[in-house]
Specification:
With 795 residues, this protein is mostly beta strands. The chain contains 8 helices and 45 strands. The chain starts with 24 loop residues before the first helix and ends with a helix. Mean pLDDT is 74; it is low at 1-49, 337-365, 543-605, 607-635, 733-777 and 791-795.
């Protein structure tokens, strides 16, 4: 992301003056101002309108913010980050307090910015550490200020898409912070800041000014206006958005009838409840004991009371922003009224409701059951939760309970018991439904909402790296088996910050055991570290290179093998790598010029028709290779002799290996081919294993390919036949040749011909010194030259 430094001198930057310029001061100032206006880069964030609404929400609290600033100054100028001395914010000292972290919104000349300032600059004891994760950052926005922002800084700023993770560290009498510009970069902005102060910070205990009772932040403060503040919960995230605070709903409740008999159905109605965004759900407490007995998404609920008395029935309505409001009404329940039921007394019945008639409204075949469902309102992924529908009722009894756990229309489980247990595999809001059915087939449904949070376990992954490397060798290290939701993959080498990404390369400059640490962070901001060790040994090839040169000078290239073997035995008597390397390199000079390397593919031919095969392993002292030698080609498969045509390819290029078969039975379909890397200590290791399909009828040619990322000496083996090849580090200019350094222009010649430059015709060309200043500097030079000439004439 851009940091805003390119525009720093345009808005309020300091101007160096060397003395008055007579007879032209006003003209120079006017020209400078005009040129600076021209130099403002295109695509800068336009100033936002003044009638925006920005809110900060934390939990159930929502604050409409009156931003600091009036749109006249950039946020860079307001923050005034000083890199020359104190590496702190000089412009916000009037807002700072010791051991207080400030969060505020600033209205600058280029838009609205979120500003953070931790601690106080100046006479303020104690330092501290703070980590924060920012999600939902607009991609059109930018971190205009990164404090700290110098090379080799201690603070860690990691950006990926719409997410930023920052670890701040500071000493006493200084502070840290930053400014993100872009709160109105899009129509709907919603940025969540997840804080980690003190012990929760990533570097707590690692930074000198931390890990004790004094170096810490004591308060997280929000500026709701230029002179108004409120204290935030240091353990809870906040959300900054460019929309207003959602108004809570207005609840309403009526009962019909308000007075009923025992076992008479009462309908509670909350249809008159209102909300500007709509009602998301209704929680019913029928008996006024403070416990929600039923959750529904419909505004009515039926309930039957089984004893007399006055009941304070309550409904809690919830909108889509989780704001709530409650309404209550009184329901009076009297004794079972004989003449309030079916009027059987007029027909000579005793009206007691026991004659099989449906006069009591409880046991008729057309009566529906009453469904109720309770359970926890919060859980985590994988945790078992118990759901209870035992408060459901029916005059004839409940026959079955149909459970729907995922919110679709399919019943996931049916039970005859009113309770069930389940768990959820994904985080989020889950609506569970129970459908109760009575003996007559009548049904009723109740719902319950559960918020499922992510498990406390962090992300997982593994490191794939070699156990051993040599000094100066480029080592490829990979993060594999990553769990879902991983957003950041960061590497550390011996505690020093390395690159990001799933696959990285690194070169160790010293021997010894080196620690490689993989840091993973997921969407919830949880962090996990995995570590491994690599033993780094000295590069023995340094001495071998002299042998190769000696061999070539002695004329070994004439036969490609014998002289080098003699040299190897005569010099050290143990390192046969010298003879092998010289054999391949010297014997194939003519072939190396055929241009095949330029295509990025090297061919290694295993050809039975050529005599005098070369087997690199036959006179090696490695026991691992001895066992491989014993494993000859399948007795039913015949591979001819081997002669190696050594090819030199770039690391990462594909190597094609061709095998000629001269016989195989019909039952054998393939044989294994292994690729080995020769180590400096005389051993080797398998880096790839490839199945080679035997041609039809057992004779003919088959090819396989492999890609090797690391430079070094390699050999491919099938049975006891071997072919060797070399892998070289890719040259910077993409060829096998060293980069060519072009001589720079002399003082008498231009660096570039404008007619040949596509940039020359573009008035908005940006040079390495800043956007759009190439033309400015040229024009300014002409003006100053003229003024200096006039000054000389005047003097």
């Amino acid at each position: 992301m851009a940091t805003g430094d390119d525009c720093g001198t345009v808005d309020g930057g300091s101007v160096m003056r060397t003395g008055p310029i007579r007879g032209g001061g006003t003209l120079v100032l006017a020209l400078l101002l005009a040129l600076c206006v021209v130099a403002v880069p295109t695509g800068a964030t336009a100033a936002s309108p003044d009638d925006v609404t920005i809110t900060v929400e934390q939990g159930e609290d929502c604050y409409e913010i009156d931003p600091l600033g009036n749109g006249d100054e950039t946020v860079e100028g307001f923050y005034d980050y000083d890199t020359s001395y104190n590496y702190s914010s000089n412009g916000t000292t009037h807002l700072q307090d010791n051991q207080v972290s400030n969060l505020l919104v600033y209205h600058g000349s280029e838009g609205y910015s979120l500003v953070l300032v931790h601690d106080k600059y100046g006479d303020a004891p104690y330092g501290g550490v703070t980590s924060m994760t920012f999600t939902g950052l607009p991609t059109d926005g930018e971190w205009a200020v990164e404090d700290d922002g110098y090379d080799g800084r201690d603070d860690q700023w990691n950006h990926q898409g719409s997410t930023s993770e920052v670890d701040w560290m500071w000493y006493e009498n200084r502070n840290d912070g930053g400014a993100f510009r872009g709160l109105t970069a899009s129509e709907n902005v919603s940025i969540t800041v997840d804080p980690a102060f003190n012990e929760e910070a990533a570097t707590w205990g690692e930074w000198d000014a931390s890990g004790n009772e004094n170096d810490r932040i004591e308060e997280w403060r929000l500026y709701t206006g230029p002179d108004e503040t409120t204290t935030l919960d240091m353990n809870q995230s906040v959300t900054i958005s460019n929309s207003g605070c959602d108004a809570p709903p207005s609840a309403a409740l009526t009962a019909q009838p308000e007075t009923a008999a025992v076992d008479e159905s009462v309908t509670l109605n909350a249809s008159d409840a209102t909300d500007d965004e709509g009602i998301a759900g209704y929680g019913w407490d029928f008996d006024g004991d403070g416990t929600i007995d039923l959750n529904t998404t419909t505004p009515t609920a039926d309930y039957t009371y089984d004893s007399t008395g006055d009941y304070e029935a309550t409904v809690t309505v919830r909108d889509y922003a989780n704001n709530t409001d409650t309404a209550t009404t009184t329901v009076t329940i009297t004794e079972d009224g004989g003449d309030s039921g079916d009027g059987d007394e007029e027909n000579g019945d005793d009206g007691d409701g026991n004659d099989g008639d449906s006069g009591d409204g409880a046991d008729g075949p057309d009566d529906t059951p009453m469904a109720a469902l309770t359970g926890p309102t919060e859980t985590t992924v994988g945790e078992t939760v118990a759901l209870d529908a035992s408060a459901s009722s029916d005059g004839d009894g409940i026959a079955s309970y149909g459970w729907n756990f995922d919110g679709d229309t399919t019943v996931d489980r049916t039970t005859v018991e009113p309770t069930v247990e389940t768990s959820f595999d994904e985080s989020g809001t889950h609506t569970v439904t129970v459908t109760v059915k009575d003996e007559n087939g009548n049904t009723a449904t109740a719902e319950h909402t559960i918020e499922v949070g992510a498990t406390d376990e962090g992300p997982t992954g593994e490191i794939v790296a070699p156990a051993e490397a040599t000094v100066g060798e480029s080592v490829t290290i990979e993060a594999t088996s990553l769990s879902d939701g991983v957003t950041h993959v960061c590497w550390y080498f011996d505690g020093e910050t390395g690159p990001e990404g799933q696959t990285v390369t690194h070169t160790f400059e010293e021997t010894g055991t080196h620690e490689v640490t993989l840091e993973l962070r997921d969407e919830q901001g949880r962090k996990t570290t995995v570590a491994t060790e690599i033993d780094v040994v000295a590069d023995d090839h340094d001495g071998d290179s002299g042998d190769e040169n000696d061999g070539s000078e002695d004329g070994d290239s004439d036969d490609g093998s014998e002289d080098d073997s003699d040299d190897s035995d005569e010099n050290d008597g143990s390192d046969e790598d010298d003879s092998d390397e010289s054999d391949g390199a010297d014997g194939d000079d003519d072939e190396s010029d055929d241009g095949s390397d330029g295509a990025g593919v090297g061919d290694v031919n295993i050809n039975p028709d050529v005599p005098n095969p070369l087997d690199l392993r036959n006179d090696r002292g490695d026991s691992a290779n001895d066992s491989t030698n014993d494993t000859a080609t399948d007795s039913a498969v015949s591979v001819g002799d081997v002669r190696t045509s050594r090819e030199t390819v770039d690391a990462g290029s594909q190597v094609e290996i061709t095998v000629d078969f001269d016989g195989a039975d019909n039952e054998t379909e393939q044989v294994p081919l292994t690729v080995h890397q020769q180590r400096a200590n005389g051993t080797d290791g398998v880096v790839d294993e490839l199945p080679v399909a035997i041609p039809e009828n057992g004779t003919g040619t088959a090819s396989v390919a492999t890609t090797v990322e690391r430079p070094g000496e390699y050999f491919a083996t099938i049975g006891n036949r071997t072919a060797a090849f070399s892998v070289m580090a890719a040259a910077p200019n993409g060829t096998d040749e060293p980069p060519v350094t072009e001589p720079g222009p002399t003082a008498a010649e231009p660096a570039d011909d404008p007619a040949d430059s596509t940039d020359a015709a573009d008035d908005t060309t940006t040079s390495a010194n800043g956007p759009g200043f190439g033309t400015v500097v040229a024009a300014l030079g002409l003006v100053l030259s003229g003024l200096l000439a006039a000054r000389r004439r005047a003097s």
